[in-house]
Amino acid sequence: MSAKIVRRGVFLIGIGSVLLLNNFALLDWDIWYDLLRLWPVILICFGLERLFRDSRLSGLTYLSPILMALTFAGVIYYQGFSKEDYFADFQEYDRELHHWSVEDEGGYSAVKLDIDFGAGSLWIKSGEEALLSAKFDYDRDPPRCRYDVDEGVVSIKIRSEQRRVSLFSWKGHNDAKIEVSNNYPLDLTVDAGACELNLDLSDFELTDFELDGGVCDINLKFGDRAEHLRATIDVGVSDLDIQIPKGVGLKLVKDAALSSFHHSGITLDKVSGSTHLSEDYSTAEKKIDIYIDAGLSSLAIGSY
Questions:
Q1: Where are the domains positioned within the chain?
Q2: Residue-wise pLDDT tens digits, 40-53
Q3: 188-216: string of b/e by CB count within 10 Å (b at 16+)?
């Protein structure tokens, strides 16, 4: 059996093993971010096979599948057994961190929050003490934060990206907890890389929500203060858990290669190839339309 055939088999076994561990929640979906970062290993494997194929050292071509197997095994090991859990619980986020805040001077008509986060862990929830209060924990690049007020609308932009990274994404951590006042309508945009997102938006009157992410583990909780919310989610390989309030009508439009899709506490009827409606959508006073464009992902919809 040639090294080329063995290498192909190892590659398929590796991909299948990672997906299986993802589906059983034994590995985070952000492992795909690290695997994609190691794509040059494929070129090294090709080079080893070509270099030794027609020589007296042809047996060394089997270094190619061995290297492929070690790559998968190394990433799985570090993801599953060596990754430090910096913030296991939102409520236990109590380290000494860099702080940035915007005072609530009153009289605002709306808040626009634009977050460009890169890789790391991000928590967002409602707060009471300030218009916005943020805590950052980072290894390398400090966050860049600014805001301005125009005709009563507060525009806040936060950039917290680790531009200089090591081989594995968790070697340098980039974590943030952001609390936003729920006294004003909120327009929220999040652009994230390989990221763990915990977004508790249940207390906000959301006027618009956009999420653009890479490899993400997403916990998203919507509220019922908006009359009709449009939410757009565009992510890569991700694990999405979305919670909807009871009594709110849901329209779900998904363009995704889903490895799994299930919903509990809410009845969804398929009305077309990609569109699902809750049974009370037409009569509900409050509605949420969610548009999902995702890669190979797991999607769970629940109600509370």
A1: 3-82, 90-303
A2: 999 999 999 999 98
A3: bbbbbbbbbbbbbbbebbbbebbbbbbbb
